[in-house]
Structure formats: structure tokens, C-alpha cells
Amino acid sequence: MKLAHYEPLSLSDFPGRLATTVFTVGCNFACPYCHNPELVTTMGNTPQLAEETFFAFLEHRRGRLNGVCITGGEPTLHADLAGFVDRIRALGYAVKLDTNGSNPEMLGHLLETSSLDYVAMDVKAPASRYSDVTGNPCALALAEISIRLLAEHDTVHEYRTTILPLLFTETDIDNIALMLPSGSCYVIQNFVPTKTLDPSLVHARGFEPGDLEMIADHMRLHYPFLHISTRGDI
Fold first, then answer.
1. What are the domain boundaries of the chain?
2. Whole-structure pTM value
3. In 3D, which of 134, 138, 223, 210 has the Cα closest to residue 173?
């Protein structure tokens, strides 16, 4: 696995778990608001974290942490992800995967083998704008397969979207939700300007809290399992 770094403790990345979050290198999307641009654009130059260093940390923290969140970048791009997950689980940790849904073959394998305890899939944009937002012409077709795969399995999961007024209208957000199976857990997360793949968005603003609540209240009429995340960017 090509690993960039890890956060020793997260109280928010893995619901119900004290977790560490490990970041993989490389992504096949180019979402302009991405807050980990160094993992997208500099795959060959990003400093690498040795797997053995990470597993030594997990060994040391056994009994004090009980979850590992694998995020990126896009973890499913790595052919050795399944083995990486198996090794984490062998230490007694639950595993959460963050994914953009672009590798349904890998996702399907992990679901079929019950290797994951939680999956969070980013649904990036309404169908009509998926390629534009992600910079990937195949993104929508792959995402639709992954959305269905998650709905067909028992693994706990959520779909989620980072939203910002400069890119998404309320109609766009409604149309994103329409892509999801009925009764899905859907999380909308407000954009928080930090560092972004598109430098012009560094000073962009997220939705005002009151406006975000109004959007959520409207959507809950049809999507009762909708939540607003209190974290920063996805």
C-alpha cells in the first residue's frame, strides 16, 4: 500500500469508535474542493509512510483504539487493499473505508468477504454534472454501480456529499439525493475552506448554518435519515 500518513486518534472519522485514520496516496478524481490536494496531484512525490511503521503503531495501540479508517486519496485504487484490510482486522480492529465509489470491483470484493465494518461513499454531484465535478468521464457509471452494491449488502454504510454554494444549488443537492436508494443514510457536509485542489476555492465560503439547516429540513421530508456532519471537508 502507498500510504502518506496517519492521524493517531480520531473521534469523528469512524462512528462509535476510537480510531486512527490512515491516508493512501493517489486519486482518480479531481474534485476542485478536495482538501487533500497533495494526495491527488503529487502521487510520485508524496512522502511515503512505511506499512511496517503503521502496523507497529497499531500493535502498540491495541486495546486502546478499536477502529481504523482508511481514506485518501482513493484507497480502492490500490490492488493490495484487501490484504491490507485483512492484516488490520487480524489485530482486532474494526475497519471503515472511505471511497469515491470508482472501483466497484474492489468494493464488491470487500463487501462479499465481509471485510469492512463501515463504508462511507462520497456521492460527488448530481448525475448531470458528475464528470464535470470529478474530472473523470467514467465517474458516474462507476458510482452508480457502487451505490447499488452498498444498498445490496448488510455492511453499515452512508452516502455523503460535500456542498458549497459556489458549486451546488439546492436543486443540485436534491438531485444528488435522488440518486440514492430509498431510506439511505445520507450525510451532507458543509465546505470548510482550508487547502483545495483548485486554489481559487481557498477563499470560497460554505453555506451559512441557518441556510444549511433549512436545506436539511426540506430534504428530511423525503429523506428522514439525512444528517449534517459537524466535521470539516470530506
1. 3-229
2. 0.94
3. 223
d(CA 145, CA 15) in angstroms, rounded, equals: 25
Decide the pairing of beta strands 19-24 and 94-99: unpaired
Report how far apart, in Å, the C-alpha atoms of 225 and of each of 3, 14, 54, 94, 181 are. Answer: 33, 18, 35, 24, 12
How wide is the angle at C-alpha 25 spanned by C-alphas 184 and 206, nearest 5°?
A: 50
At 105 the pLDDT is 98
Residue closest to 74 by CA, chosen among 97, 96, 105: 97
Domain 3-229, CATH class in plain words: alpha beta
pLDDT in tens, 49-59: 999 999 999 99
**HSE, side-chain direction, 13 A CA sphere, residue 184:** 26
For residue 43, pLDDT beyond 90: no
Cβ(96)–Cβ(67) below 8 Å: yes
**3-10 and 19-24 strand pairing:** antiparallel
CA atoms within 13 A on the CB side of 185: 11
The HSE-up count of residue 34 (CA atoms within 13 Å, CB side) is 25
Q: What is the mean pLDDT of residues 114-137?
A: 97
CA 121/CA 132 separation, integer angstroms:
19
Strand order in the sheet with 226-229: 3-10, 19-24, 67-71, 94-99, 118-122, 156-163, 186-190, 226-229
DSSP 57-98: HHHHHBTTB-EEEEESS-GGG-TTHHHHHHHHHHTT-EEEEE
Fill in the amino acid letter for 37. Answer: P
Pull the grid cell for residue 118: 463501515
